[in-house]
Amino acid sequence: MNSVKYFVTIISIFLLFSCKPDPADTGDLTHIAYSPATYTLDVPSHFPVMNIPADNPMTKEGINLGRHLFYDPILSGDSTMSCASCHLPELSFTDGNAFSKGIDGINGTRSSMSLINIGFVKSGLFWDGRVKTLEEQALLPVEDPIEMHHKWPELIGQLKDHPEYPVMFRQAFGIKNKNEITKELAAKALAQFERTIISKDSKFDLVQQGKALFTDLELIGYGMYFDNDPDLPQSECGHCHNIPLATSDAFFNNGLTSAATLDDFPDIGRGKVSGSKADNGKFRAPTLRNIKYTAPYMHDGRFKTLDEVIAHYNSGGKDSPNADPLLHPLKLDPFYIKALKAFIDTFTDTLVYKNPDLQNPFK
Ligand code: HEC
Ligand code: HEC
Fold first, then answer.
1. Taking a C-beta distance cutoff of 8 angstroms, is the pair 270, 283 a contact?
2. Sign (positive/negative) of CA torsion 102, 104, 107, 110?
3. Is the C-beta atom of 81 inside 6 A of ligand 1?
4. Are 255 and 318 in contact (CB under 8 A)?
5. Residue 170 has pLDDT above 70, yes or no
6. Residue 13 clears pLDDT 60, i.e. is over it
């Protein structure tokens, strides 16, 4: 019994000393090697080139740090929520909800977005394109009161006192002292990780590379998607969700809301960013890659299934002054709807979410 007490005392003394910041610890990190390894993205030849900011080159160490930060609930005010809470790999980096809830249980007003092929987006991030770069975007969820509701200065303090992060920041960015950890470096690492979330192994991609063939039904859907066969009904999808990324990366009003005037949209979307009324009710056309996993659909998650989405387009959408002219009743019968869905399903890529390099590093 005594020996147990003795042992407990020793452990307590040990813990007491090990938990207190060591006054001799100057935060110096220069004894740790800084030799970042350049990382080359694996982008197939039928893809566009990804623009990578000159001041944030991709390195293995930067991506590794970003991946840890992405999955670490330390980023939220009560340490319960990480980026991945709303961007789950198995749901193509969305959260399966119409509106995302933050740590205080408050619902946001828009649906979480897929992060696959996010590095290729040029027109601006978010449904309304209000943010230019991933580096800028990554700063926002942490302090957003309806998302992670934390404070960057506090979070930086936690990262400095963390047993592993100072070393990872040293290895990624060459900081000499842990006091040099900043939110901008954290955001750079997150952006590097996000640029590696590339979906490129769908059946559609294999066909592009001559490694697979569409079935007859998929071929009919293909012709409808791109309106390139006069014998098939048109669907217009490919104008706004064009290949290879299954998005034109541009803003449209796709007829979700009936509005008598341009002031009648409940969420004006792009109009708030551009300041032009003509953009009210427009949102960025998202990618249809892995659309199978990103329900519910649209910026407000109004459609639960792809069938509801197609029924919407098939009806020609709702009227408003700037509804896109490509919207008109498509008159697709069940066979052609099936064919269109079969083609869209060729955008499904299960390898991206099973990719071990994109998984939670803490598991
Ligand atoms: C509470 C849920 C939630 C959390 C936590 C969250 N996000 Fe999001 N994310 C969203 C929602 C909702 C949107 C769309 C918001 C909008 O358009 O206004 C979004 C959009 C994005 C986009 C833009 C995608 C695009 O296609 O334009 C990126 C990038 C992103 N989030 C990255 C992150 C990162 C990095 C973190 C962690 C630092 C994070 N998110 C944490 C819910 C969340
Ligand atoms: C005029 C351009 C345009 C056309 C044509 C178009 N879309 Fe869209 N699509 C958009 C826009 C813009 C959004 C986002 C709207 C929003 O959320 O407010 C969208 C959203 C979607 C979504 C939801 C994506 C998500 O992640 O929530 C799906 C699915 C979709 N479209 C499929 C299709 C299909 C199938 C067709 C053809 C039948 C089609 N679209 C035709 C512009 C278009």
1. yes
2. negative
3. yes
4. yes
5. yes
6. no
Q: In one letter, which amino acid is 306?
A: L
Ligand 2 binding pocket, CB closer than 6 Å: 235-237, 239-241, 252, 254, 256, 283, 285-286, 288, 291, 294, 297-299, 306, 309-310, 313, 324, 326, 344
Q: Measuring CA to CA, how many Å separate 269 from each of 109, 130, 252?
A: 11, 9, 10
Best residue among 95, 126, 225, 237 to mutate for probing ligand 2's pocket (most ligand atoms within 8 Å of CB) is 237
Give the distance (Å) from ligand 2 centre to CA of residue 153. Answer: 39
Atom 33, ligand 2: which residue's CA is nearest? Answer: 237
The pLDDT assigned to 25 comes to 81
**309 C-alpha to ligand 2 centroid (Å):** 8
Residue with the two structure tokens 């998302």: 147
Of the ligands numbered here, which is closest to the C-alpha atom of 286? 2
35-84 residue pLDDT tens: 999 999 999 999 999 999 999 999 999 999 999 999 999 999 999 999 99
User: Ligand 2: which residue has its CA nearest to atom 41?
Assistant: 237
Tens-place pLDDT, residues 334-347:
999 999 999 999 99
Q: Which ligand is nearest to the CA of 105?
A: 1
Q: Which of these, 170, 136, 142, lies nearest to 156 by C-alpha position? A: 142
Q: How far, in Å, CA of 118 to CA of 137, rounded?
A: 12
Residue 90 C-alpha to ligand 2 middle, in angstroms? 22
Provide the Cα torsion 352, 99, 81, 191; round to 10°. Answer: 50
**CB under 8 Å to 123, separation ≥6 — which residues?**
129, 249, 250, 251, 284
Average pLDDT over residues 274-284: 98
Percent of the chain clearing pLDDT 90 (strictly above): 89
Please report the pLDDT score of residue 23 as a whole number: 61
Contacts 24+ apart (CB under 8 A), 73-77: 74/155, 74/158, 74/159, 74/162, 75/141, 75/142, 75/148, 75/150, 75/155, 76/103, 76/142, 76/147, 76/148, 76/149, 76/150, 77/103, 77/148, 77/149, 77/150, 77/151
